[in-house]
Each structure stands twice: as C-alpha cells, then as structure tokens.
Amino acid sequence: MTDHVLKVEDLSVSFPQSGGRARILHNVDFALERGTVLGIVGESGSGKSTAALAVLGLLDNGGSIDSGRVVIDGEDLYAKSAEERRQLRGGKISIVFQDPFTTLNPAIRVGRQIAEPLVMHRGMTEAEARAETLRLLKEVGIPDPERMAASYPHQLSGGMKQRALIASALACDPDVLILDEPTTALDVTIEAQILDLLDSLRITRSLSMLFISHNLGVVSRICDEICVLYAGRVVEYGKSASILTEPRHPYTKGLLASLPKMSRERHRLQPIPGRLPDVRKPLSGCVFAPRCHFAEPRCQTTPPAITPIGEDVAAACWRASELARTPWRIESSETIPRRVDAGDGKPIVVARDVERTFEAGGAMDGISFSLDGWVPRVSFGRKVVRAVDKVSLTIHEGEIVGLVGESGSGKTTLGRCLIDLISPTSGEVAIDGAQLLNASRSEKRDLLKRAQIIFQNPDSSLNPRKSIGETLERPLELVGLGREERQRRVAELLDLVRLDASYAERYPHQMSGGEKQRVGIARALSTNPRFIVCDEAVSALDVSVQASILNLLLDLREQFKLAYLFITHDLSVVSYIADRICVMRNGTIVEVGSTEAIIDRPQHPYTKALLAAVPKVPELRANLDR
Amino acid sequence: MAEAAANSRPQHRRAPLPASLIWGGVLLTVILALAIAGPSLSPYDLDALQLDMRLMPPSAVHWLGTDEFGRDVLSRVLNGAQSSLLMGFGATAVSLLFGVPLGLVAGYYRGWADEAIMRAVDVMISLPPIILGLLILSVTSPSLWKTVLAVGFVYIPIITRLTRGITLEVASEEYIQAARARVEGGWYILFHEILPNAWPPIIVESALRVTFAMLLAAALSFLGLGVQPPASDWGLMIAEARPFINSAPWIACSAGAALCVTVIAINLVGDGLREALDPRLARRR
Amino acid sequence: MAGYVLKRLLSIALTMAVMSVLIFWITQVMPGNVAYMILGDFASPQDVATLEAKLGLNDPAYVQYLRWATGLLQGDLGRSLVMDRPIAPVLWDAVGKSAILAGISIGLVALLGISLGVYAGVRHGRISDHIVSVATYINIAIPEFLWAIVIVMLFAGYLNWFPATGYSDLSSGFASWARHLILPVFTLVTGLIAHISRLTRSSMIDTMQTQYVRAARARGLPEKLVIRRHALPNALLPTITILAIDVGIMMGGIVVVETIFSYPGLGRLLMFAIQNMDVPLLQACMMVITFVYAAANLIADLLYAFLNPKVRYGRSSSE
Predict the structure, then answer these.
(1) Is A4 strand, coil or helix?
(2) What ipTM describes this predicted complex?
C-alpha cells in the first residue's frame, strides 16, 4: 500500500467568463507519494497553475470547485471550513510561486516575512521565530542570514529572493511543498543552483513536492513521476523516466519531438500543428484529436478515459497501446547540416569595437547631493553603465550566429546596435560594406532594407490598431512600391510564412501568438533583407509553437541565404539553430566558436558553467528516435 | 484563468455598449439639442425686463418663475446651456490641442525636451486650478472666450502628463521599435503609430475633463471673473440668485440642476467610453 | 535620504522662483499700463503719475521684479493700495483663519476618506462599494459653490441651525466658534472625502490582488492580518500623494467657500484684491498660496520617501 500524502481525485474547476463559466480543469486525478516529487507538466493554458491553487484552497477571481476532492494526509481539504483550510496553508502545505520579484511584500523586511508561518503555525515568540529564520536561511544556502533577514526585498537579487521564499515555505516542515514554476523567472545558472538546493532538500528533509513546470528538462531532472496536462485534462501520467523516454500519448510525443536538444546533429523539429481548443466551446471526443495526426473517427466522437498502459504509465488515448513504439512525425526528419564554411562566405555585417554606455536616470539625476555632517555636498555626473564593451563581430552571408547570455549581459543592446535601433557610443557597424552609423537618413533607410529585426513578444510587436495587411504594406510603401504591387507582395509574404492570404484582413487580437510571430517574420522579410536580428524570437512561445517557428526560420535561411543573429538565453535553442555561437557576459563576448566546438569543447569557464546548468531531457528510446 | 483566456480562440463579436454610455449619450444628445434650439424654444425674450413680475415663483406662465428683474428663468436656463457647453468643450479642445503634442514629444523623445516640458508642467501645477484661473483672469477684462482660454490653459499640464505617461508605455512596445528599424520619421511614429494607441485613455480623460472645465468655468463666472451680466450663464445665474436664495430658491436651483444634469450626462458618457475603450482602466475604478 | 531631501528642497525653490516671475509678469508687466488698469480708463494724468511713482512703475520690469522679490525674501510683502497699509499683518491674520478651516477639513478628509476607502476596498463589490460610487458621482456633479449655497439655504435659511456667514473668534466662546465653522467645513470636506475614498478604494483593490498578498494567504495568515500587515501599508502609500493633491483642491475650494460664507480668510482676501485691483495684495496672496501648496507637496514627498523602503534604503550592493 503506497502512502499518498496528497491525492487529487476527479477535480474540476471553473472560472467565470463573459457569458457563463469556463471550465479550466476537467476531472483531474493525481496522487503524490510521500517523499517523492510529482511533476505537473503542460504548456500555457493547460491549467497547471490552477491545479496548484486548488490544492492550496486558494482559488480566487471567482474560481470554484465543480467536483472532486483534494485529500491531504487523509483529510479532505474542501470538507473543512475556510478557517481550517487556512490553518493548513503554510503549515501542512506550502507553496513557492513563480516570480520572486512580486511575491515578497516590498514594505516588509525579508526576515519578518519568512518568520510569519513560524509565529502563525508553530506558535513561536518573535525571538524564537527570528532564531529559526536565521537557521532556515542558512539551510537554503544564504551566506549571510543576518543581513538577509534585515534587508528589504528590493535590495536582493532574484535568486536570493527565491531562496528566501523557499525558506519560508519550509518553515513549518510541510507535508507537501508545491513549486509553481519556481525557476522560470531566473537565469539558467541561478536556476541550476535552485534546482541543486531543492535536490538536496528533498533528501535531507525527505520532502514531498508537487513540481509545476513547462520545462521538460527541469522536470526530468527533479521529478519521480510526471502528470502531463493538456487543456485542463490529464493526458498521460506515470514514471518520469518512462514517459520521457517512451511517451505513450500523442501530445507527449509531440511535445518531446518539438524540443530542440543540445546535440551535434540537427534533425528537423516535429511541431504540433494547430492550437488549444476554446475553453468556452463544448467538446465531444478526445481534446487533442484536432491536432493529433494519429486521430481516428472514434477520437472525434468519444473521449478516451485514462487507462494504464504497461506497468508504470497511464494515458488517455484510444491508440496508446498500438502506437507505443510509433514516433510523432508529420514532416520529414532529415538532418540539417550546419554551415562550417563561414570563413569563405561574404561578410554581411561587420561590427568593430562597438561600445554602448547608458547613463542612469534623468537629467536632474546627474546632480547628486550628500550630507557631510551638516555640510551639503553637491556632485555632478551620472552613473554610467557599460552595456556593450568594445565588441567586434562579423556575420557572413547565410550564416546563423547565436548570441547567448543571461539577463544583463548586453546581448539585446548589441543586437540593436547592429541595426542602429540603439546608437552605439563608439565603434563602427558596416552592412554590406557600407557604414551604417553616420549615414544620412535616406542612406540609412537604404541600408536597413538589408537588415531587419524580429522581436520577442508577439503581443507587443504588432500595432494593435493596424490590420496585418497595413502592417506589412508600410515598409513596402517606404520603398516606393505601388498599391497593387504592395498587395501582391503581401500575399507573397504571408505565403512565405505559411499563413493564408486572408490574414491580411485580420487584426493582431484575432490571432494566436505563433501566428503573430509569423507576421513579425513576414514584416522583417518584406524588404528582402540579407540579415535579420532575431531578438529572443521564440522565447515567449510554447515549445510546440516554438518548433514550427524554428523550422520556418531555417527554411527561410535556405531559401534566401539569409544571415541571422539569433539572440537568446536558451542554450538548447541556440545550439539547435546556430552555426556559430557567441557567449556574452557583462557586455563582452567571452567565447566564440562553431556550435560543435562550443558544445563539445567549451574553453571559457563561464561557457562551461552555462552548459552545465542547462537541464537536459533524456534521449528517446532508440527505436523511437528515427 | 488569464492564461487560458489568452490562448483561446479570439472572439469576433463585439461586446454590447455599456449602459452608462447609452444613457449618458441619450441625455447629452437631448441637452445638445436644447442648447442648439434654446433661443427659438425659449418662451420669452432673454433680457425682457418685467419689473412688475420680479421674483415670481414657478407658475403656468413662467414655468421656472422669474428672477429679480422679472426675466423668465426657463428661457435663461435654456440659453445658458450654450455657454456652459461651449466653455466645457472649448476649454478641453484648447488643452488637448497643446497637451497632446507636448505629451507625445516628451514621452517619445525623452531627454532635454522631456525635461523642459515636464519642468514647465511642474510650474503650472504649482498653483491649484481655480487659483491659476483666477490669476490669469484677474488682470484682464472678463469675457467668455478669455474664460475658455484660461480654463483650457489650466488643464494643459494634466493632458500633457497623461499623454506622456501613455506615450512612454506605447513607445516601449516592439512595434515602435519595428517602425524605427525601417527608419520612419518622428512625425509618422508619433501620429500614426503611437497616437492611435494612445487615443482611448485620452478620450476617456477628455470626457471627464469637459465636466471639470465646465465646473471650473462656472465657478470662475460665479466669482465674477468669467461670463459677465447680462449674459445667461448657469454659474453667473447662481451667483446673481444668491442674495435671494431663501426668498426665491427656484432661480439658483434651476440653474444648478441644469448644470448638474449636464455634468452627470457627460460623466456617464466618459465612464461608458472608459468601459468600452479601455477595459483595463475600467476595472481599476 | 539626506540627498533626496536636499534635492527636493532645491527643486521646490526653483519652482517658487519661476512661479514668482510668472505671477509678477501676469499681474504687473503683462497688462501694459498697470496704473490705468488699477485706476480705470478715465483716471486723471496726475493720479496716474502719483500711482506710477508709488509703485515704481517707471523702472524697467526686471528692476521692479527684483525690488519686489528682494522684499519678499526679506519678509516685506509690500503695501496694500486700497487699504493703504502694510500687507503682512492683514495677510497673516487671514492665513491663520484659513489655516483653521483647512486644518480641520484636511484632518477630517484624511480620517474619514481613507477609512471609508479602505472599508469599501476590502468589501469590494458590496453595498459600501456602491455607496462610494454614488457619492463620487454626486461629488463630481455638484460644484462647491452650488453645494455651499444649498447648504446655506437648508441649514441657515430654513432650519436656522447655524449662522450663514462670518467668523467668531475662539475668545468669544468655543460654541460660537464651532458653530461658525461647521457649515464651511462641511462644504469643503464632502467632495474631498468622496475623492480620496474612491482612490483609496481602487488602491486597496489593486493591492489585494498582488502576488505578495496571495503569498501571505498561502502562508496561512488570517485575512485580517493579511489586510493589516500586507495590504494596508502598500495601499496607503499612494494616498499620501493624493492628500497633497487634495490640499490643492481645497485651496481652490476655500476661495469659493470663504466668499459665500463671508469667512475672513485668505480666499476672501484674494477675491478682495482681485475685485479692487489691489495688485500688491494680489501678488502677495498668490505667493503665499504657491508656497503653502509647495510645502504640502514637499511634506507629502518626504513622507512618501520615508515610508517607502525603496527610496529610504535605496539599492544595496548585494545585487
């Protein structure tokens, strides 16, 4: 008999939405065994965060439990009064939220916030709580607990804040610790440290954890079991190692096939077509059927129940058993060779000694006052931040250069300097042999026809007041194309990014994130550029959508011999797409090399640290891989 | 929840118009119609003195009674609509005309232009609105158009600040970066990229600004620095009726009620617009 | 923190200096011939000459300004033309009387407005919430001067509970003093209470939806403690700034209210100066109002900075 510290049975949750209620969780079942880690995995819209809040009894914004039970340590949470539920929170069950920057109260010292559950649930006095707080802070690896406890949140870094929040969640030795995307807001090296910490805590404290994440690498690293959610339903559930190496449900197969992996060889990614179903529409049949290329007639009519397949996995799919060994494949998965001939290609962008400094604050901030005893002192001059520090970089025709770095490394600033969106403080940038920085406006416009940019955030990169047609026509208008020609070209561009011509009539709010990103790519392509800066171009997208955009970018490169500067914080993505990788830190490029060289033989200690920090997904079983 | 909603298929149908917009719109239309038709509707000549009919209470002959000169109150209230609406909308137009471009420039170009504009704004708001209005009007002979200009001027800094704040927000959007990446001129970016996205909150604010302007103008007229007798203006009428407030309350009450109803109508429209155009702001109220 | 205080002081001094130029320019330079403006278009040339000499109007504008500004800095507010005596004693007496009116009012506004707002914010979506909304509408729709007249009509005219006008010194009895203050204070505070409670309410609602409030609930704190410890301090911070804005609104209101209630304060003195074209008195009143408003803003800014750890402690090196 297994000892389940947490059991969720048949849980359905809905939220009010214009014209009725939208069901976010549908009859969800999972159970957490004592001393183990259960991962709840899903893309955005899967309902995984709602599941966490429901387990805590903290549904807000009008959310309500329509059916089911949450059983913690044998006690039914929703059979209790609100007051009893409150006493469980922070005591028997506690949570670490995603964003440490907003989770700490800015007006209260960190130590006092951590101590709250101690006073509340363990009845400690202020002094006892203080001593215990310092001990907890030490346990989560904070070098100077005294100073930490006396600090206000804004004085700490994100990683430190997340450690403090973990300490607070551990304060009352909870039976269940929920972690809701605990490392998503953090840099990869900090993420690795936090995961190490959680790893050691689960051993020293024999913690039971519910680990919610969209990141399969992180999940595979820490979880014993995995529960895959899709559109509010459990589609696959079982042992982590088994699911990740031998997925049974088509959705899980697709998810894994969409994931770029760090490897020398590059296979074409296999994305999942389509998008999430509308939560407001009633559904007959399997929820994944519209996107599934294994779907049969019965999948459209009757929803499959979750049934065990083999010993340690259960899946909600009619064909799970027969497809057990079949990989997700909708496109050919030939290998795509990397360019190693960078040397003889013609250079498109040449940047020499590019430097960019920022002065902090407004003009008045340049004057600062201080008191020397009672004598006021005035000093002038602003704090100068060197975002990019004498960087030289050459990008050749048809080459994809990856630029990786953590937040604050200056990678975005460098990318924008190359197309003069941010003017460098000093240095030279030449595009196709012509100097960009001191060019007149008309020359600049001429040069920038050949260099364009794709942005990170699909919601922000299109003007919401303009139709897609208008957005795509404007650059063409600037080049002097006539009306008919423009419209023909817009249809052509939409076709290039695999969108229907009717999208020209649409507005951004009528499109999904992936579609908007395609329009962003089409806009960048409109003037036939030779070089495109991709600034975190796939970072805001779900894995399945990201894969199709990466494929598209690679296809376009082949078709037009485009060169990309691919800026990202994601090493897996960059090692997948790039021919050459530059590693950036504190405004300088610390290492450059072919992708192969960087992955296999990193030289710089920082590169090594970055590579070591990336959580990896295990390889699929051999017979599934090809 | 939010993440699910963001991912679900977008809806093409439009949300129904908010009730406040409909009610406010109907009310305002009636008031505007009365203001335009006022002179021809009014039963009596505006300035016809009937010294034997002074301070008569409402009756079948004079529906809203007469004032201290025996003038028909209903006629004067009907005619007062024009001057009130003119001052409210006129003054708001003045502050938009200056405030919006200033705010756009300050918010988009930043740097010294921003610094200069915002310091000027700081100076202008270092006097409370009514007092600034008094200061501007104190040394000139009062008239309607001067009041409009003064009230408009008083509210320039508020529009500037609002526009600047929205511009800062919009300018950080990536589509503005995209426009710069194709080397668009400043004029195009300000008026074709930023302004269309800045309009909704500005329109909502302007609707509320009209009522503030109307009330400020009425207060200035009440204090004797706005519209001058014998013009029919609600603020002025209330001032003139003040000595007779206990013996003839109908004069001040009629003019006051007209002012209140107009203000409420415009406010309803403003709130309705806020709900329809800027749901994010509406929730915060 | 000390640097911040000095910086704010400097910026306020700068604003005051620019405002003084503006006030002087509008009242004395811009009208062209001030003497004719004061005396009327049909004044005799002798009278005009006398007045020009008296005001030093024949000097260049900047000399006039410097003379006036140096006087101000030395505490010399000049002489009133109409009353023909030094402005200072008259002005300070009026300021004192207005301060009583404003002090009581702002105290009531802060106390009642903020508590009402917090209450409505916590009980979001219930009856108290609607009361605040309706009160806001009434406040927006009824201008102060109309409200004052209605109040006079009701409480002084028909009910005859309180005197309609005037001021009674505290030396002539507390009851009489208070009775004279009730109606003006009532007029002043109603609108402002609606104003600040609406803003406090929305600030409270926003704060209750923050992630750190959710985190406090997840730690199992009782709702009362969540509100008191986590929500209130953050929600009340912005109300400090709103209170400063309300001081400004109130100073406008005081002009109207003092005029209607014949209350011998700064607002009435200002209207007296405007109606009688007493330019030196007008300038002095304007400067005092600018100064008081600037001081209110300064206090609010400093209080805000002091209560906000982000400003108070700045960023540490542990980033």
Answers:
(1) strand
(2) 0.85
